[in-house]
Amino acid sequence: MSYRSISYWFDSLGAEPVSRAALPGDLEVDVAIVGGGFTGAWTAYYLKLADPGCRVALLEADTIGFGASGRNGGFCWASVAGLSNHFKRDPEKGAALREAIKATIDEVGAVCAAEDIEADYRKGGSLTFATNPAQAARVRAHVDGQHALGWSEEDVRWLEPAEVREHMRVASCHGGMFSVNSAGVHPARLARGVADAAERRGAEIYEQTPVTAVEPGCVRTANGVVRAPRIVLGLAGYLSQIPNYRRDAIPAYNYMVATEPLSRETWERIGLPHGKGFSDSSRFIIYAQRTADDRIAIGGRGLHYYYGSAIEPRFEHNPRVDRKLVLALRELIPDLGEVAITHRWGGAFGMSRDMTASVNLDPATGIANAGGYVGDGVAASNLAARTLRDLVLDRQSALVELPWAGHRSPRWEREPLRWLGVRAGTAINASADAIENRTGRRALFHERLLRGLGANLEY
Length: 459
Ligand SMILES: Cc1cc2nc3c(=O)[nH]c(=O)nc-3n(C[C@H](O)[C@H](O)[C@H](O)COP(=O)(O)OP(=O)(O)OC[C@H]3O[C@@H](n4cnc5c(N)ncnc54)[C@H](O)[C@@H]3O)c2cc1C
Prior knowledge:
With 459 residues, the chain is of the alpha/beta class. The chain is built from 12 helices and 20 strands.
């Protein structure tokens, strides 16, 4: 199989993507990192930067970026799953996390520049449309809430429908929001570029090396055992496949499509510059960006969980969702005309039971884990990696004091309760979206139900 078929991003890497060699046998290192997505690659990079003498080995089951990191929407935005819960618990700590994730957008750009990572990083901000009055009420409340918590009009502002159309010529729109703290990236180039930078600094990277078990001080693979006093898990949704961690996260699938490159005239009509992403504000959002070669890459409209936390190649395509994405695109941009869809793909991100991202190191076992980012992992994984660096190197820093450090999410239920619960949550969210689209009024009954289930995806 060519890696090109993984996603549009892999198809547009340039040269044919190739893997590094597998682990040749037993190994002893200071830090073993499991998983070669953003979390693993950034952690290897920052560890070697901070302590060049630290021996770091990264083990990836397939190839760098094979997971969600090489398949996502490429929105590097200032958002962390569960941030609003931290605000509710302790506004000061919530604000610290929000400032840290905001600064992360620039940090990603700075590393791309310093390490010559050609990841099409462009900080153009993000637009969020309200496509019905209920969404508009929620977006307005969100903007007001952000201002009440200290962000300025510069960071985030409400846009009247006419102002939205100054950014991008969308069809019917009830207003929106513009956030400056967001960049567009080519995610596969970013993941692979960061891994290359870590390797240049001395990290050892082994691909085609699936880890079969993780124990204190020891990572087992079919090729050999890696012994390390510190182990970092950067597995997102794949954590559910590792013994002892099966109920810590679930793999939740999302799907994307990419159009053929659009003509200059079409882009002049649409009006969206490179680096500015857009999304709507339904519960099952759509998110999209203009790629460097002038396509629209769009994803969302659902969250798909397969019984038993299964991850299988056959789940990577979902024609029903692809059709919904194309329809959403046409509704949003009727000016689009006839365009061909050239790429269709899917991937799984990791979701914790309380939909809250976290970074942890258990001092008793030496095992660290970061994940649960849901659809907000591009920036969050960078912040998590810098926090993991400080935890692993036992450094006191402002990062290890952030409220997501040390947060423990509850474990997921056993099957079939897990499947039933996720199915119920997604069905209610979808029904709430449908009601709001039809009536324009907020689906308040559904909202209460979803809060009870801990599954409210409300924007
Ligand atoms: C379709 C889609 C769109 C998204 N859009 C956005 C977006 O626009 N913005 C945003 O912020 N977030 C987005 N996300 C979420 C984001 O992509 C993830 O949160 C992020 O990539 C997670 O990075 P990670 O390194 O933790 O996990 P992953 O990238 O999933 O990496 C885990 C790695 O572990 C490897 N692995 C699995 N099992 C083993 C094993 N046994 N041994 C060794 N290695 C193993 C996998 O091959 C994989 O490479 C999206 C996700 C998807 C799926």
